[in-house]
Design goal:
Elements (H helix, E strand, L loop, with lengths): L8 E5 L2 H11 L3 E4 L6 E4 L6 E5 L9 E6 L3 H10 L18 E3 H4 E7 L5 E5 L2 H10 L2
Parallel strand pairs: 1-4, 5-8
Antiparallel strand pairs: 2-3, 3-4, 7-8
């Protein structure tokens, strides 16, 4: 059996400076830059940190690398769009003119966008999100 001390998520990017600027300045997350170009740490309010590392032959993930649970998706989407961020649209989701999937996750709303490296980030709100966060202990 594996005995763990802690866990964290990670994903790669092709440009640490662009990633730092996007996560700190565009999203407003607290970002720590590690020494010697090792990577970045994204500090999320109440969950484990996320490690972002440079990879020369980076290929964006074909899935959402992480979700940000927010109180209300709409003002966050409006703010991101005002900053030049485009929302992704996916077949199979009933997304409105803003790109928000209504009724996502048990009555909440969801939206997706990419970072400068092409990694997909999700936004979600609503009671279903709160239940999921409770179940996963986040």
């Amino acid at each position: 059996m594996v005995t763990t001390r802690r866990g964290f998520s990670s994903f790669s990017v092709d440009d640490l400076d662009a990633a730092r600027s996007f996560y700190a300045d565009t999203l407003g997350l607290r970002v720590t830059t590690l020494d010697e170009g090792m990577g970045l740490v994204l500090h999320l309010d109440t969950s484990s940190p996320v490690f972002v590392y440079p990879k020369e032959d980076h290929t964006p993930a074909a899935f959402t690398v992480f979700h940000l649970a927010v109180d209300d998706v709409d003002p966050v989407v409006d703010d991101l769009v005002a900053k030049g961020v485009s929302l992704e649209r996916y077949e199979g989701f009933d997304q409105d003119e803003k790109g928000v999937a209504r009724g996502f996750m048990e009555g909440g709303d969801g939206a997706w966008f990419t970072d400068p490296a092409g990694n997909v980030i999700g936004l979600m709100d609503g009671e279903g999100v709160r239940q999921l966060l409770d179940e996963v202990g986040a």
